[in-house]
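Entry 14. Ran structure prediction on the chain below.
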Amino acid sequence: MTRALVIINPAAARTAPLAVNAVMSTLRAAGWVAEVLATGGPGDARSLAEYGVAEGVDVVAVFGGDGTTMQAAAGLVGTDVALGVIPGGTGNLLAGNLRIPASPARAAKALVSARPKPFDLGRMERPEGAQYFAVACGAGYDARVMAGTLSEHKRRWGMAAYVATTLRLISDIRSTVYAITIDGVEYEANAAMVLVANCGEVIPPFVRLGPGITPEDGLLDVVVMRANNFSQSVRAVWDLLRIAPGFLGERAYVGYARGREVRVETDPVQPVQLDGEPGGHTPFTVSVIPGAIRIMVPGRR
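Output, structure tokens:
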């Protein structure tokens, strides 16, 4: 018999009471013993996940967005308690990379037949403590888009809210100087955006960051995009979609590198995001934690 704690974020885009009831009914119909608890503010998801570990549950499932999911994941690092993902937010990037159905009821059905797999996480050291990301963190234009998209617009329009912000800010896109150190090797790049990726897709399944990016290899992948105007932005996105990787350098619109520890410094300071959530400003250092958590993955993967 599987014991589960389901953490819900009432503020997430798709966690209405009817959807929560459908999720819980699906789990219980499969014979799971499931308790549901709701977050009330920042940091609650991690505390609730730690409570689940102390209570000896087998799975901590999060019905919410990527931010709530990663807070809970932080409480599971180094434990045998598996993370279940039921998409309830706007982006749901982790769920998309895992091919978890978008419908909460279908996601719950997939969860009861899923199996735990080791999963790498990225860890960023910040003054307030370590923060983790499952898909990607980044500095520059993407972080500006995330920060510039209002919560009320995300709840109302979903991913379209990010698209609207992208178009609104694209005329201001500019490259700046990034100093990037990867496993002790220093690079300098003029970039509008630098991503440090653990998973391969930023808009699953349509936009891949590059070949061979996986959360199972003990490595992080650095993706650098250079653009100073709208036309260069289009060229950079085109190069990314063609998956035509190059090296970090001045001539490439998109450059790639790979390593276990990455430090990013900029002049001037740039905003930072982790899985779509605000993460302060540069500089930052991230490292990969191989097999940091176990995550419930649908059997077809």
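Confidence is low (pLDDT under 50) at residues 244-250. Will compare against last week's run tomorrow.
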